[in-house]
Design brief:
- The structure holds 2 protein chains of 2 kinds.
- Chain A is about 5% helix and about 30% strand.
- Chain A is mainly β.
- By secondary structure, chain B is α/β, with parallel strands linked by helices.
- Chain B has 3 domains: about 5-115 and about 300-395, Sandwich (Immunoglobulin-like); about 125-295, von Willebrand factor, type A domain (Rossmann fold); about 405-490.
- A 6-stranded mixed sheet of chain B has the order 6-5-4-7-8-9, with helices on both faces. A 5-stranded antiparallel sheet of chain B has the order 1-3-14-11-12, covered by helices on one side. In chain B, strands 2-16-15-10-13 form a 5-stranded mixed sheet.
- Chain B is globular and about 70 Å long.
- Classes of the chains: A mainly beta, B alpha/beta.
- The interface between A and B is large, with 38 and 41 residues.
Amino acid sequence: MITCPHCKHPNMEGALFCEECGLSLWSDPDEQASTRKLDEDSNEFSVKSGWGTATFREQNEVIIHVRDADEPISIRPGVEFLIGRSDSSSGINPDLDLTPYGALEKGVSRIHAALRRGEDVLSIVDLDSANGTYLNGQRLAAHQPRLLRDGDEIRLGKLVMHIYFK
Amino acid sequence: MGLTGFEQDHYATLGVSPDASDEEIRQAYRLAARRFHPDVNKAPGAALIFREVNAAYEVLSDRQRRVEYDAVFQGRRGAGPRLSLESLYSRRYVKRLDEPQLLYVLLKIQPTQGVSVRSDAPLNLCLVVDRSKSMQGVRLQHVKSAARRIIDASRPEDIISIVVFSDEAEVIVPAQHPRDPQGIKALISTIRADGATEMLAGLKAGISQIERNLDPRYVNHLILITDGRTYGDEDKCLELASAAHVNGISISGIGIGEDWNDRFLDELASRTGGSSAYISTSEAISRFLNERVRTLAAAYAERSRLVVAPSIQAELVSLTRMSPNPMPLPADEQPVPLGTVDGAGTTSIVLQFQIHTREAELGEFFVGRVEVSGQVLGTGRMVDQAVLDLAIQVTDKQIEEDPPPGLLDALNRLMLYRLQERAREAVEKGDPEEATRRLEYLATRLFESGEEDLGQAALLEARRVAHTQRLSDEGAKRLKYGTRALLTLFEDEK
């Protein structure tokens, strides 16, 4: 028998989440977050993160690690920060141009997604991209902003990146 | 119904190699009989497996019949089954205890590596569209433009039909290859909203359009789009779905807005291995339909089904398909229709067992057998069958092990869906306090998982239940299909 530390519900041996309140009975998720590595190898199952802080203040910077890239990208997003790949023929010039990271081959749209700064939060919104925007493995519905947390994994088409707050 | 005659893979059923000796076959039969004989094992899945085991033994223990069987399956013997199964266990070692314990298994079904995957199976598709009065305006417009897009995207070998229904059904586009897309699109434009929702007539007409070209080389599928409830003919609709499934037709349901009966549409679809979905805004119809049709066209195997036969020391508690098309599956009715196995991705299912180790011997513990069968497209009428025996180790002391991250992730998502289900059950049995508490737990867990919007929706419903003792129709569907969508396991990056 495993007694839930939160709601005291008696759970059967072998339970991984409390049947009553849903608390993880296996380990403290915060501990997992602190042991997460920057360049974690997620080719088997992507690890679900989402436990980092969601607070993003005026003075914070965003560090973007594009997978397999040498240097992280550091940005200070404004109210709306466009991510995509530039295209001279249509005059599209996003704030972050991912062309140097193989954006075209990886299915990044010219106007793919945007970071939006709110009051002490940062969110990401998919701009109806052809191949989708994924937050921690989940496809986002177009035009529906979702809060970002420190350490989140974002995938634009097939281009994977991690977001850190600094 | 079990697999019969030459369609069954007798070697896989008995778990022996095609060159097994008579003695090996006899031993395999005895072991299977001890595990699955209906006198000792009362689980519904076990009876099915035992029937197949018997049929296999009858053939393979008779020299003459085995030679005949081998002659027919020469081709298959070399390649092995074209479906492969993989399992992840929440624990590999369990301590022997007096009390029952839980064990989770994540089952992954995939095309066997190295087998050339056909991902361009032609569709035999019928759209059955509710054109009742309530569909008038934006909803019907979006459905019509979605239908036009499907016509544009169709390939010459596909067969498409469109049926509309209100008080009665009308075949707008009879089953045909889309040789004249403009003509078909003109027909779609003639659809007008009027009348009530009489689903049975629509389903009947749709199924008969598909049956005109019923062919195992095709993906035979019906997509039902509705925004309302059908009254009085629900049971007949369900019977019709079961019959369609036997003939190799699967059904998926799409509900628009708040007024349709989600449980009914779930049941209708799950009887055929299909799934149901909720669309809150009409704008999403087109994207959703496109995605569904694209998935169908990437089918690897059709008419697939799952049998789970727990051992006599285990019970199957629940069964949930995580991807594609997340959906709880019936654990007590076997076999379970799975519908389409996707060629591009993995079909993932979580099995929850309760195991009894009190009288178990130390060492290997047999949990049960899973069998997945289906018709791999482009291979004729033959059924491919994959069998996996699940086993863990029973020990006399606790062994600490980390559950596989993939399984933990799946169970975290499943937990959210369960909390939602139990909140709804609490409302239905008239216990608003319990329901409120569960909704608040759900909200907490959703926020923790970064699902702010759904978390807010759960909080809103918690307040609503506390005041009115009811969930809103919209909120109930949003939470159900919202947490269900979270179940989808994303692909391993290849």
